[in-house]
Amino acid sequence: VFSGSKHTPYQGQRTAEGFVDAGIKAAKEKAYENLGKKSGGSSDKSDVITLTDSNFKELVLDSEDLWLVEFYAPWCGHCKNLEPHWAKAATELKGKVKVGALDATVHQAMASRYQVQGYPTIKLFNAGKKTSDSVEDYNGGRTSSDIVAYALEKLAENIAPPEIIQVVNEETLKVCSEKPLCVVSILPHILDCNAACRNDYISILARLGDKYKNKMWGWVWTEAGAQPALEEALELGGFGYPAMAVVNAKKLKFSTLRGSFSETGINEFLRDLSFGRGQTAPGKVRKCQRSVPQSPGTGRTVNCLPKRILTSPMWTWRRTNYK
Q1: In angstroms, how far is the first alpha carbon of the chain from the final one?
Q2: What is the structure's pLDDT at 199?
Q3: What pLDDT does 20 receive?
Q4: Do domains 2-158 and 164-315 have the same CATH topology?
Q5: Among 62, 65, 120, 254, fewest CB within 10 Å belongs to which?
Q6: CA distance to 85, 126, 173, 202, 233, per residue, from 251 (Å)
Q7: Which GO terms describe its biological process (predicted)?
Q8: By three-state DSSP, how is residue 109 classified?
């Protein structure tokens, strides 16, 4: 099969249908390679990334991301059975783990390099710098749930704990729109809770951030009264401080902590949200005048949300189950 400047031996069925399938497959691979398009088989909307001999180094080996790569053959029955599970896993892992697929009958250089002898062969490339020691064979189950569970377990082993970020300007608050969930804490004013007291609260958040690090959530905090629009939008402060809300920008929902602001209380709250057992509340927001951002530690911060977040519907949600 000749494709571009390369040719590879044909290893499919010796039938007219087999030859046609191989030709179409080669043409699609070349088109995807030229466009840098994602593909997982029959669906153009798949989150599986098409890998080739020419883009493997750039996309996988030179990246800091954790990758799961399937080496497959188009005629392989087991590969066809795996395809929908592989695509579903890619969607569930999107934003956390990269999921790719390489046709080993066409792109034989990479298949040979990683000693692929059967199909499908799945290999994990750990996060960070890629070496021969960072590649692992996956020998687990072939359902999407098996694949996702394995990937998240490996991700937790590699990922660093999240930073607990103080909201001081628009950039620091953007983490709420870039993560699956964002944990927003309002801590007591420094006059009501001295430095040691505040550090104790931040330490609690840091420990829980480490515990839930594989969730890839964002974690932010601000001082009571410093961000009134944020407090009003999430209906925080009415029960005193400290207070907490968890925001899901994609699903346009949020949920507030009604229990104790303790390691145990917050853990139960976050655990319930993880299993969809929390409740959301309606949010309100008003536009405000932006103050000049100050550096951390000055005691002064901006007093409004980014315009992009202010004008979005995420602060006017209906009361509904958090799922």
Answers
A1: 49
A2: 96
A3: 65
A4: yes
A5: 62
A6: 24, 30, 18, 27, 16
A7: response to endoplasmic reticulum stress
A8: helix
Which pLDDT score is estimated for 34?
Answer: 57
DSSP 279: B
SS3 26: helix
Kindly list the distances between the CA atom of residue 78 and the CA atoms of 28, 213, 227, in Å, as whole numbers in the listed order: 21, 34, 55
pLDDT of residue 177: 80
pLDDT of residue 216: 85
C-alpha to C-alpha distance for 41 and 45, rounded to whole angstroms = 10
CA–CA distances in Å: residue 298 to residues 68, 165, 166, 173, 288: 45, 15, 12, 18, 21
Global pTM? 0.55
Name the token pair of 57.
């180094």
Q: Could you report the per-residue pLDDT of 238-289, keeping only the tens digit for each? A: 778 999 999 887 777 889 998 999 999 999 999 988 877 655 444 443 333 3
pLDDT for res 309: 41
The CATH classification of domain 164-315, taken from the options 3.20.20.70, 3.40.30.10, 2.60.120.20, 3.30.1050.10: 3.40.30.10
The residue whose two tokens read 């799961």 is 68
Domain ranges within the chain, ordered by starting residue: 2-158, 164-315
Q: Give the per-residue pLDDT at 95.
A: 86
Determine the residue type at 125.
F
What span, in angstroms and rounded, lies between the C-alpha atoms of 69 and 50? 10
Do residues 87 and 41 make contact, with C-beta atoms less than 8 angstroms apart?
A: yes
The strand ranges marked E within the chain are: 2-3, 6-7, 49-51, 67-72, 98-103, 121-125, 135-137, 164-166, 182-187, 218-223, 243-248, 253-256
Question: Which positions ≥6 away from 74 have C-beta within 8 Å?
Answer: 12, 21, 22, 25, 103, 105
The per-residue pLDDT for 194 is 94
Q: What is the pLDDT of residue 25?
A: 67
Report which of 292, 293, 280, 290 is spatially closest to residue 321, judged by C-alpha positions. 280
Q: Are 133 and 77 in contact (CB under 8 A)?
A: no
* pLDDT less than 70: residues of the chain: 1-15, 17-22, 24-45, 277-323
